Amino acid sequence: MTHLPPNSPVPISERKQDHLDIVLQQDVSAKGIRTGFERFFFEHIALPELHLEQIDLSSTFLGKRLQAPLLISSMTGGTGSAHEINLHLAAAAQHLGIAMGVGSQRAALEHPELAWTYQVRKVAPDILLLANLGAVQLNYGYGLDQARRAVEMIEADGLILHLNPLQEAVQPHGDPDWRGLYGRIERLVAQSPVPVVVKEVGNGLSATVARQLAECGVAVLDVAGAGGTSWSEVEAHRQPDPLRKRIAHAFVGWGIPTALALLEIRRQLPHLPLVASGGIRNGIDVAKAIRLGADLVGMAAPALQAVCGAQEQQEQTVIEAFQAVIEELRIAAFCTGSANLTQLKQATLRRQDTWDPLP
């Protein structure tokens, strides 16, 4: 692994490395709550009248052409090992023709010598690439200048503002002031040089919050629901205080299941571009997410496990992991009689509990 330059800021780098190590080495999956995709099943078409290899999974998102509706979701940055991970992920995204987001860039904005750990354009000149800042930082001195710097730092096509109130509430030295953020987000959106995406980090967006964010003018919402990685559980592993650790563990099952958040937000906002993420692990779940209203589907943990689980040829390992997801999605489209994503959005999807088809 590449090492940090001399005199790098140890505390923030250590926090970033802690997050990576905990996600990879500990069981931090949500408990007592699932994504909700298991509650749906597609009506199987036994005679699809299609050629499997001609299924078209391409789409356009934020003006960029994608070969499949997939996003390698925001994960990391701020350490030397994170830079290597980002490079492998970006190179895989370039090869596959899919999108990618980087982890929160606060570390590099406060310590510019860390900017290189987020920069991937040299291996991924053509991908849809998203910068990333914590929305709560708008209450702590951040604004248009920091947003522009984050975008310019990585030559991004869009900017993610992530919402993580639960994580901030349970982590050591978290940011507690979340007042007035709708207004600050609205002002930033109006001035931003690139489209703004607002996402949760794994506890879900409600339809009410989504509607208010849409009124602020955000270009895209990422529902980032519950059922995958629990960031309160990640922070529990970082807590030195036994009482605070216990409190963080209590929220391991907190949040809105990904499928439910997606379904309810799409009903409220029929035309706003949506990303579905949170516990999505295979191409069948991707297909269900598309049918429930997603335009793009994000996956983080499978990509991180692929790149860090390989001793060599990490880029190829990531490519193979996502090729499997893409082929699963293609077969799901084929077996629902869907020649493309537009038709997949209309495929018959039924509820397990009632067997009734979704409207």
- From the spread of the alpha carbons, the general shape counts as globular
Strand content: 5-15%
State the share of residues found in helices, binned by percent: 40-55%
**Tally of distinct domains:** 1
The top-level CATH class is: Alpha Beta
How many angstroms separate the termini?
50 Å
Order of neighbouring strands in the sheet with most strands: 4-5-6-7-8-9-10-11
The pLDDT mean sits at 94
Largest sheet: 8 strands, parallel, barrel
Q: Which features characterize this protein?
A:
about 350 residues, TIM Barrel, 8-stranded parallel barrel, 12 strands, about 40% helix, globular, disordered N terminus
Describe the structure.
The protein has 359 residues and is of the alpha/beta class. The chain has one domain (31-351): Aldolase class I (TIM Barrel), CATH 3.20.20.70. The chain has helices at residues 10-25, 80-96, 106-110, 144-154, 165-170, 181-191, 207-215, 231-238, 242-250, 258-268, 283-291, 301-309, 314-334, 341-344, and strands spanning 40-42, 59-61, 64-66, 70-72, 99-101, 129-134, 158-163, 196-200, 220-222, 274-276, 296-299, 349-351. It has an 8-stranded parallel beta barrel with strand order 4-5-6-7-8-9-10-11, surrounded by 6 helices. Strand 8 (196-200), helix 7 and strand 9 form a beta-alpha-beta unit. Helix 1 (10-25) crosses helix 8 (231-238), helix 11 packs across helix 13 (314-334) and helix 12 runs antiparallel to helix 13. The termini are far apart. The model is unreliable at 1-10 (pLDDT under 50).
